[in-house]
Amino acid sequence: MTVVVIVGSQWGDEGKGKLTHYLGPQFDLVVRFQGGSNAGHTVKTGGETYRFNLLPSAILYCEHTCLMADGMVVNLTRLLSEIKFLQERGLWGDNLRIGSHAHLVMPYHIFLEELEEERLGGRAIGTTKQGIGPCYADKAARLGIQVGDLLHPPALKERLATAVEFKNALIRGVYNRDETYSVDKIYDELMRAGETIGPLVVSSVEMVRGYIDEGRAVLCEGAQGALLDIDYGTYPFVTSSHTVAAGACLGTGISVNDITKVIGVSKAYTTRVGNGAFPSELTGEIGDHLREKGLEYGTTTGRPRRCGWLDLVLLRYTLKIHGCTELALTKIDVLDGLETVKVVNAYRRNGDVLTATEVSNEQLSQCEPVYEEFDGWGGPVSGLRAEEDLPPQLAQFVDFIEREVGVPVRMLSLGPDHDETIWRTPKLKQ
Ligand code: IMP
C-alpha cells in the first residue's frame, strides 16, 4: 500500500505542481483534498505550459484517475471552463471524479468576500477573492450546498432558498447594498452544470478506500502551504482550509494510518501573497530580483508575491506539523548568480534569540531574523543532472538546510521542466 501526501511547507506556491506531475505516473489515483480555485498550479510539460486552479495537476495523465475530494470547495463555473479547456485540446480523458461532500462556491460567496475585504480596508486579509472563506464559513454554519446535492434537486432548492434569503439580508442589512440573488436563477445554473458534473460525483471515502484496499498507489496533492492553515498558520492571514498533511485525512476520509510518506515542498527562498507577518521579507533590490527571476506573480490573481530569504525557523515548524518524511527543495536556480545567499536560522525577539517560536501573526511580527550566510554558487545550475555535479557551495547550502530542519532533502528542482531535477541521496537518514 502506498499513500503519499505532497504538501506546501511555506505560504503556498512552493512548486508542488511540478512534483505532483513528476511523480503522478507512479500512482493510480491522484487526489486534491482541500481548497478550491484560490490555488493555482502551473505545469510545464512537452513544451506547453498549463495552468489549473481546481483540477489536480495530474489530470494531464489521462490514464490516471483524479479525485477532487470532500474537503474541497468547488466553483462549478471555473470547473466547467477547465474541463472545456482540456476537451478543446483533446486532453480530456473523462478521468475526473468529485466527492459528493465537497461544497459549492456560490456567486454570493464571491460577492460577499469582495464586500468584506472592502469593509476591512487596511485590515484586509488580501484573499484571492474566490469566495473560499465565505464558502467554508457556510460549511461550518451548516448553510452550505454540497456537490452531492446536485443529484437531489428538490432538497437542493430548499436549502438554496434558506441560504439565499440569509445572504440577501446580509448584503442589504450589513453592507447596505441593493444587489440581491435569485434562488431560481442560481438553481437553474446549478441544474445546467449538474448535467456535466452529476455523472462525475462519487463518495470520496468509498473511492479512496477502494484503491487503498486493492493495494493501489494513491497520491494526495495539497494546495497552498502549512503557514496558511486555518488552525496552524499565521491566523487571521490564512486560508480557510486545512493545508497541513492531516488535511489529507480530513478531506478524503482516509485514516492517518493509511499514509506512508509525506513530502514537504519548500522553495530555496520564501514568498507570500496577501497580507500578514513575513520576518525574512526583502523589500529592496534582492527581493525585486527574486520576484523577477522567479516569476513570482500569483497564478490566480497576478499579484506580485512578496519575496524573502528561506526561513528555517518556520520550515522546522511546518515540517513537524506535517510529519514530513522528506523535503523537496524547489526553484534553486532562482538564487543562481547571487554573491551571498542567506537563510534565517533563528529570531531575535525582546533581546532573546529563539530557534523556534509559536507561529502566530503577532509573535512573528515582533521577530527580527538572525541569518546564516553562504557564498553564492555562480551558475546556471539548471543544466546539471547529477548530485556530484553540484557546485560545492550549493551542496553545502543543501546539507545545511537538511541538518538544521532534520528532514532528508531528496528532490532538488533546478528549473520548471521535468528534467531540471536532481534526486539527491540524503546525508540524513530517517
Ligand atoms: P483565500 O484562500 O482566497 O481566502 O486567501 C487567504 C490567504 O491565502 C491570502 O493571503 C491569499 O493570498 C493566500 N492564498 C490562497 N491561496 C493561495 C495559493 O494558492 N498560493 C499562495 N497564497 C494563497
Question: Describe it for me?
Answer:
The chain is of the alpha/beta class. It has 2 domains: 3-75 and 206-423, Adenylosuccinate Synthetase, subunit A, domain 3 (Adenylosuccinate Synthetase, Chain A, domain 3, Alpha-Beta Complex); 103-199, Adenylosuccinate Synthetase, subunit A, domain 2 (Orthogonal Bundle), CATH 1.10.300. The protein contains 12 helices and 19 strands. The strands form 4 sheets. Strands 9-7-5-2-10-1-11-14-18-19 form a 10-stranded mixed beta sheet, with helices on both faces. Strands 12, 13, 15, 16 and 17 form a 5-stranded mixed beta sheet that branches. A two-stranded antiparallel ribbon has the order 3-4. A hairpin with a 2-residue loop joins strand 3 and strand 4 (48-52). Helix 3 (107-120) crosses helix 4 (132-140) and helix 5 (153-173) crosses helix 6 (183-197). It is globular, with a radius of gyration of 22 Å. The two termini are 20 Å apart. The structure holds inosinic acid.
